[in-house]
């Protein structure tokens, strides 16, 4: 009996120690997913996508807007148009400065909070080109259609960045692509379109529903350095919850955030934390070997700072980060 107990115990321990990248949660058919307005929407994950809209999205990447902000125009955007050189050469775009791309999530647009918060933090820190991508044409459709169109939108963003490179000479190693929720998978596809040459790709709580085994999701080869910040990866969480990048950070265990009582708050905390690290670069992760260490807060590995704006950042592995309840966390 004792030997049998030991065997069962060993199997249980081994199962619980499976790395996060090998564990997938199962979503019910109907889930509640928030839009950029903070309202929860009931989504049927088995609904048929709008094929007419998807065909248009695939044919016309110019559906998406690229809005440039610099220190010369920190709050009023200039519109850059793919394959329109004069829209770039007559703008404040500076090929010698770093370029950050910000991509919002589902049911959102250029005015959603993530954009001005990250934009302002970055421009206070750097003389840079901040480009907000508005992909509302697809983002305002139903969730299943938006998921299906993510690869095309991502390819379009990649083609736009390749166009910027051709017109201005702005190097790919000065580009940092940042996306939230569905936007995280968009920047992954954009980086893939560029052959993984972008300096950094950052996924802020990459969306979970319909992405667990989706080959078009964010992955570690999408940039020179790919980072993911997971803040709502619980069983019913909105984030993917599993490792997808070179370095995956799990603030406070990656499921529930201090000061939050809703999944929406946990989900949004990813971009709030990231914005704070641009300014302060103060949140330090400890490397972990498995899910048990992340959940139990017993990680004892090397340090790696989460987020920030450093283009030459590197690192790999799973990291636990402990934060406070309110800004700067």
Rounded to the nearest angstrom, the distance between the terminal CA atoms is 50 Å
Radius of gyration: 20 Å
The side-by-side strand order for the widest beta sheet comes to 4-3-6-5-7-8-9-10-13-11-12
Largest sheet: 11 strands, mixed
Could you tell me the number of beta strands?
Answer: 13
- Tell me, briefly, the overall form: globular
Structure description:
It is a single chain. With 329 residues, the protein is of the alpha/beta class. Helix content is 33%, strand content 21%. The chain contains 9 helices and 13 strands. The protein has an 11-stranded mixed beta sheet, sandwiched between helices. A hairpin with a 2-residue loop joins strand 3 and strand 4. Helix 2 runs parallel beside helix 6, helix 4 runs parallel beside helix 8 and helix 6 crosses helix 7. The radius of gyration is 20 Å and the shape is globular.
In short:
This protein is an alpha/beta fold and 329 residues long. The protein has helices at residues 2-16, 51-59, 85-89, 114-125, 136-139, 143-168, 182-193, 263-280, 291-296, and strands at residues 30-34, 40-44, 65-70, 73-80, 99-103, 129-134, 175-180, 200-204, 225-229, 247-251, 284-288, 303-305, 317-321.
């Amino acid at each position: 009996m004792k030997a049998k107990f030991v065997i069962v115990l060993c199997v249980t321990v081994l199962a619980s120690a499976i790395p996060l990248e090998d564990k997938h949660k199962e979503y019910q058919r109907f889930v509640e997913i928030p839009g950029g307005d903070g309202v929860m929407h009931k989504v049927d994950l088995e609904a048929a996508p709008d094929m007419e809209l998807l065909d248009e999205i695939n044919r016309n990447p110019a559906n998406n807007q690229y809005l440039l902000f610099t220190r010369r125009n920190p709050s009023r955007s200039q519109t850059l148009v793919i394959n329109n050189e004069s829209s770039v050469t007559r703008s404040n775009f500076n090929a010698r400065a770093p370029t950050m791309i910000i991509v919002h999530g589902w049911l959102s647009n250029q005015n959603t909070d993530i954009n001005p918060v990250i934009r302002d933090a970055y421009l206070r820190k750097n003389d840079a080109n901040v480009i907000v991508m508005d992909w509302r044409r697809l983002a305002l459709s139903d969730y299943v259609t938006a998921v299906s169109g993510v690869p095309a939108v991502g390819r379009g963003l990649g083609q736009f960045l390749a166009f910027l490179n051709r017109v201005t000479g702005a190097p790919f190693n000065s580009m940092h692509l940042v996306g939230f929720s569905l936007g995280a998978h968009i920047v992954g596809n954009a980086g893939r379109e560029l052959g993984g040459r972008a300096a950094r790709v950052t996924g802020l709580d990459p969306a979970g529903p319909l992405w667990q085994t989706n080959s078009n999701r964010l992955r570690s080869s999408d940039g020179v350095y790919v980072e993911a910040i997971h803040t709502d990866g619980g069983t019913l969480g909105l984030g993917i919850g599993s490792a997808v990048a070179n370095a995956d950070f799990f603030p406070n265990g990656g499921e529930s955030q201090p000061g939050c009582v809703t999944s929406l708050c946990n989900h949004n905390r990813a971009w709030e934390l990231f914005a704070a690290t641009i300014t302060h670069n103060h949140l330090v992760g400890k490397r972990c070997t498995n899910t048990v260490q992340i959940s139990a807060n017993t990680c004892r590995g090397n340090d790696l700072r989460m987020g920030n704006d450093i283009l030459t950042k590197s690192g790999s592995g799973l990291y636990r980060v402990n934060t406070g309840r309110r800004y700067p966390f």
